[in-house]
Amino acid sequence: MTRVRCLTYNIDGGTVAYLESLCAVLTHAQADIIALTEANDAEVVATLAKRLSLQHVWAKGSGDRHVALLSRFPVAAWHVYHTPPLTQAALEVRLQLPNSETLTVYNVHLLPYLLLPFELRRWQAVGRLLEIIHTNRPGPHLIVGDLNAIAPGDRVLQPQNPPRMRRLMAWQFNVIFHLAIPRLLAAGYVDCFRRLHSSEDGFTWMPQNRTTRYDYILAEAPLADKLRACQVVDDIDVVALASDHLPLMAEFDLR
User: Fold this and answer.
1) Range 217-240 burial, b when 16+ CB lie within 10 A, else e
2) Which CATH architecture does the domain made up of 2-254 adopt?
3) Were 240 and a residue from 8, 38, 63, 207 both cysteine, which residue would form a disulfide, CB within 3.0 to 4.6 Å?
4) What is the tens place of the pLDDT at every residue in 199-209?
């Protein structure tokens, strides 16, 4: 049996100024697979991989926000998708596990803002991602990353959000539309955090003023049955300084 710990983390640009903080957080987490969004500095990603003794892939997104994946398992193949409607990026990485099987991780970063036009774009992006997965037939796989979308039933503490976001949401009377995440759930994917935490918010945005859960680890159903833990990584002080997001980590027992 192989215990696999997969972590998703928006590192807010990942500049060299935050290298030490990010390294401290990731060293503390001890994840086997680290999916980074807004990993905009390729050299910072390479340095993190070297310090953690992990392999890595870095890929450009459609704009100025890029993605990366670090892994203690060998990288068998990878490809990045970043053309409309799948923007900003989806990084597909196939990993070779010790049991001679593979695990494919789709590290996804979707467009921000909770306004309806952006949620429609996310719904379209999810549709394209599902087409890619259906075509590629990757076997056991995860969809992880900053989806910038809200799951049905989740709270958003809008009065605590920054003024600009409150003004934007006032344009649609503070209504939050749920299109992107339900499309993934309808396709059979399991929201790992919500499966194990039915009543916790699990907020991942703004460590010192948590208001929203934007970051997800979604497992196809057979893999979800092997889920053993899923939690927001907030038990190290420096995590409040490393990024404007908190990491989310899930653990699986794979045979």
Assistant:
1) bbbbeebbebbeebbbbeeeeebe
2) 4-Layer Sandwich (3.60)
3) 207
4) 999 999 999 99
